[in-house]
């Protein structure tokens, strides 16, 4: 811990991996920490400097993984091996939940821990230059967490996904959903196969962590379990505190559930979007937003089924679709009541849409809850199955299996949402509305010690 003398503003480095779905909420948190009276550095790849400007904090360039996604995964410039893995993953999502999760398990070492020694050197240099009092690190940035552990630096953990991403028991395995939505119930043998792959990953990651510690900081304690390595002071979840979630150990760590990480007011995306929504609303009584995230927008077959289904079953609705790299391939679906775009101002549109169809990504889920927007969830991979389960159980959304989706099935589900709002939506919108980024920042400042002393 740094030596202490005169009281001053705390200096905090918020470190984000180069993925828009992670950098966006972390930049919002960075801005909230600055409003709480901290001097904040937003540390990420150069492409994300505009997020720091939007949050009114200082930007510092540091790339912590060769993987990247600046908004449309297939357009992001990255290495041949990273592109190959992305294409393999997208193909696997066509074969259902277990196939996608097994592919992610095979890719995990390259995706999440590609250059721990290089990241350690980068964090050491950053710390010498900026001398932050503490850090906020994305929980999925395992090399950054490992570097902070090796260097003995104070940090808080920000969990960008489902809370089980920070495993609390030996039975909780990273990459295995803790629960499944009703529409997706894999065979026990396939789940057992996934658990074996996840357990092997757990052991391999832990050994790689131990090797880094032995090589670079041999006097430092070796983590008992790599995936469970997190701050002993504060772990912040960008998620509601559902009462059925697994309990955390009573070890003195503050576990903070922030509900959502969307700003209080979303700026206008400009005249073109304002005009588009005005025109659609003039001629249609309902507006449906379809967005499957920055990776899964590549599943244009699913997007096409969704558009056709809504037009069949909800003729009074207009549809706005985020199609990423596949926007041109879906251009034939464009019509006066269908707008296809590569990217959309999702948070702004949620304040104007009557329903959303999404993939169960954490940002889409929590933003829908915060805005009170009913959702149809189509989970493909990662923690999306756990999130879909929670959304169903909380009566916030309905869930379908994207690998078995038909247009009429999708359209009927959207009509159900528009006809009969999910029973839990108003309750949980009020609940998460009491929290959010400013709540997170104030509680985090308190948990980490608030005002620090000069050195």
UniProtKB/TrEMBL annotation:
Protein's UniProt keywords contain Phosphoprotein: no
Highest taxon in the source lineage: Bacteria
Family annotation (CDD domains): GT1_Gtf-like
A Pfam family it matches: EryCIII-like_C
Keywords: Transferase
Boundaries of every Erythromycin biosynthesis protein CIII-like C-terminal domain copy: 317-421
Protein name: Erythromycin biosynthesis protein CIII-like C-terminal domain-containing protein
Origin organism lineage: Bacteria, Bacillati, Actinomycetota, Actinomycetes, Kitasatosporales
């Amino acid at each position: 811990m740094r030596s202490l003398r005169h009281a001053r503003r705390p200096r905090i480095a918020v470190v984000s991996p180069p993925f828009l779905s992670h950098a966006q909420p972390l930049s919002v948190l960075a801005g909230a920490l600055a409003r709480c009276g901290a001097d904040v550095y937003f540390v990420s790849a150069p492409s994300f400097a505009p997020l720091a400007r939007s949050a009114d904090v200082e930007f510092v360039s540091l790339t912590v993984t060769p993987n990247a996604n600046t908004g449309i995964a297939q357009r992001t410039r990255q290495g041949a091996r990273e592109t190959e893995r992305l294409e393999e993953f997208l193909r696997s999502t066509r074969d259902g939940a277990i196939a996608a999760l097994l592919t992610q398990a095979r890719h995990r070492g390259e995706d999440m821990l590609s250059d721990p020694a290089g990241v350690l050197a980068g964090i050491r240099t950053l710390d010498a230059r900026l001398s932050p009092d503490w850090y906020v690190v994305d929980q999925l940035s395992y090399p950054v967490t490992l570097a902070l552990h090796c260097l003995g630096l104070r940090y808080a953990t920000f969990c960008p996904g489902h809370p089980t991403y920070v495993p609390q028991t030996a039975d909780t395995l990273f990459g295995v959903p803790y629960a499944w939505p009703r529409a997706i119930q894999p065979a026990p043998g396939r789940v057992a196969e996934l658990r074996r792959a996840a357990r092997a990953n757990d052991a391999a990651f832990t050994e790689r962590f131990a090797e880094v510690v032995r090589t670079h900081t041999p006097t430092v304690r070796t983590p008992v379990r790599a995936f469970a390595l997190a701050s002993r002071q504060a772990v912040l979840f960008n998620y509601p505190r559902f009462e059925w979630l697994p309990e955390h150990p009573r070890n003195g760590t503050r576990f903070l559930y922030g509900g959502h990480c969307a700003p209080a007011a979303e700026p206008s995306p400009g005249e073109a979007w304002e005009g588009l929504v005005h025109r659609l609303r003039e001629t249609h009584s309902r507006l449906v937003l379809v967005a499957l995230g920055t990776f899964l927008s590549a599943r244009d077959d699913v997007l096409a089924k969704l558009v056709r289904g809504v037009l069949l079953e909800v003729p009074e609705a207009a549809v706005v679709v985020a199609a990423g790299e596949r926007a041109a391939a879906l251009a034939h679906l464009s019509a006066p009541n269908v707008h296809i775009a590569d990217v959309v101002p999702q948070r702004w549109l949620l304040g104007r849409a009557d329903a959303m169809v999404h993939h169960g990504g954490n940002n889409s889920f929590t933003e829908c809850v915060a805005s009170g927007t009913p959702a149809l969830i189509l989970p493909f991979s990662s923690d999306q199955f756990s999130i879909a389960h929670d959304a169903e159980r909380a009566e916030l959304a309905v869930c379908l299996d994207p690998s078995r989706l038909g247009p009429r099935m999708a359209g009927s589900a959207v009509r159900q949402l528009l006809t009969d709002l999910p029973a839990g939506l108003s309750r949980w919108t009020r609940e998460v509305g009491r929290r959010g980024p400013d709540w997170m920042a104030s509680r985090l400042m308190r948990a980490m010690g608030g005002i620090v002393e000069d050195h």
